[in-house]
Structure formats: C-alpha cells, structure tokens
Amino acid sequence: MEEAFALLRPRPDTSVDDRGALADLLARNGRIEELREHAEADGHGPALQRLAEALEDAGDVDGAVEAHRRTEVFRRDVPALLVDLPVRHGRGEEAIEVARRCAERGGGDDCDLDLLAGLCLDLGRPEHGLELLDALKARRGGEEHWEQYGMRLPLMAACGRIDEAVEQSRAHPEGDVWYAAGQVASMLARAGRLEEAVALLRAAPDPDWNRPAPGGYLAELGRFEEALPLLRHHEPPQPPQPLERAGGFGRGGGAGRWCGPVVQPSARARSRASSESTIQSQDSCGSTGVWAKPPAASRPM
C-alpha cells in the first residue's frame, strides 16, 4: 500500500488523473489528514472535491461545505453542490441562503435563478421564493425576460395564485408567443384545468410549436377523436437555433439554456453509477449545450 502511495505522490509532471487517483486512495483508506494536506498543496480541483466527499461521509458537513467552496475556481457547478449538500443534511434555510447569494452575485444568471426557485419549491417555501425573485428583479432594474418570469409559474401555482399567474403572463412582453403559451398551459394542466390549457394553446400564435400538447390534454379529457389527429399527424418544426452567447443574459451569456448541474465524477461516483454519463462543464452553470428560443429576427411572428 505504501508503495502505491509513493508512486502516486504528485510531481511537477503528474497528470490531473493521477492527482485524483491519489486523493481517492487516501480517502478510501481513511487518511483524511493526508488527504487534506494533498488538497492544500494540489493546484487542481479533484483533491478538494474528494476531500469534501470524505468529510461529508465522516459527518463534517461544515468542512465539506468549505472544501466545495474552494473548488469554485476550478468548477462551474459548485453553486448546485453547495445547495445540495446542506439540503441532504436537513439544513434547508442555509441552502436557500446559499442559493440566494449565488443568484445575487450572478446578476441575474438564469441557472442561478432557476436553482433558487426550484429549491424554494422543493422545500415548500414558494412564497419566500417569490419574494426572493422580486428582490433580485429589483436589483436588475425591474428587467425580467420570459425565461426568468417562467420560473415564477410553479411557485405561484403552489401558492394557489394560478389566475394571477395567467394574467401576469398575458401582460408580459413575451406573453403572446408560442413558448410562453406552452409553459402557461402546462401550469394549468398540472392544476387540473385541462380545458383552459387546450383553449390557451389553440388561441396562441404558431400553434404547430405546441400542437402535440393539446392532443395530450384532450386525450386526458377523454376527447380521443379530437386528440388523435393532433398526435398522429404532427410533424415537428425545426428545432430552435443555438443562442448566440454575445449579448445574452447572465454570466454564461445565454438565456433559456438547460441549467442542470453536471458534476465532475470522482472515482467513488463512477463506481456507484458506472452507467451514468457525466459531462465536464464549459459554461457558467455546468452545461455544454445551449438551447433557446429562436433569435428575434427568425422567431415566428
């Protein structure tokens, strides 16, 4: 065993993978202090990540949080990790505060806002989530494009404010376009208001973008003769064009992109779920793919 440690001790030409292998070996053998020293001296993120995992396993949640904070210079998914860690240990209020600070620091980054809104919803704090979104909107000078506004809909629905959400959606500058109609209709459908969801989609411009959705809602209503033509003969339109990063919203320069966290896997994570696919992040919220609504010039009118 000592020979393995000696072989993996970092040298100037040691690869990132080998540095991570040493961290994994130290953690598996319970040599936390040596792992801490290795992480302190390491110029890369894997050792700090492995230290955070080992500290959490040992019950040192605060130490794990601090280790994750220090990986932020290497990894873009740290806000999600910093939120998820206290949630796993029943520290929801702390997680909300971490998410709020991330969103405030990000200046309106969609991924940070989505993380905050989703967390408040999951923790049963929808009203608080709306208050936080209002405060962040005020810091941006009152600006709120549709992707940001749409994050409010599940929170408002959870507060029983569906009618208010529908009215506010209609008043939004983007409230009369296909992607807004689809999101509002989904909120209505989840609340059991299928007839209203169908009517909204049928009245929306460019119905082909949302054509399968009313078919599904009609089927749920038992109106199969109306539903089948929509579900059988739908030919989807061309997918949205990739969003230009320059001029977009947030630190990553993009609005409407998928914001799920993508975590650089440790050896432990790989052994737990070898079939799962992980992606190393290249933008501000852990996503390499960026999809959004079509640019204004090409958007259907």
Automatic annotation (TrEMBL):
Residues 232-301 are annotated as: Disordered. Residues 266-275 have a biased composition (Low complexity). Residues 247-257 have a biased composition (Gly residues). Transmembrane segments: none annotated. Residues 276-287 have a biased composition (Polar residues). This is Tetratricopeptide repeat protein. It comes from Kitasatospora saccharophila.
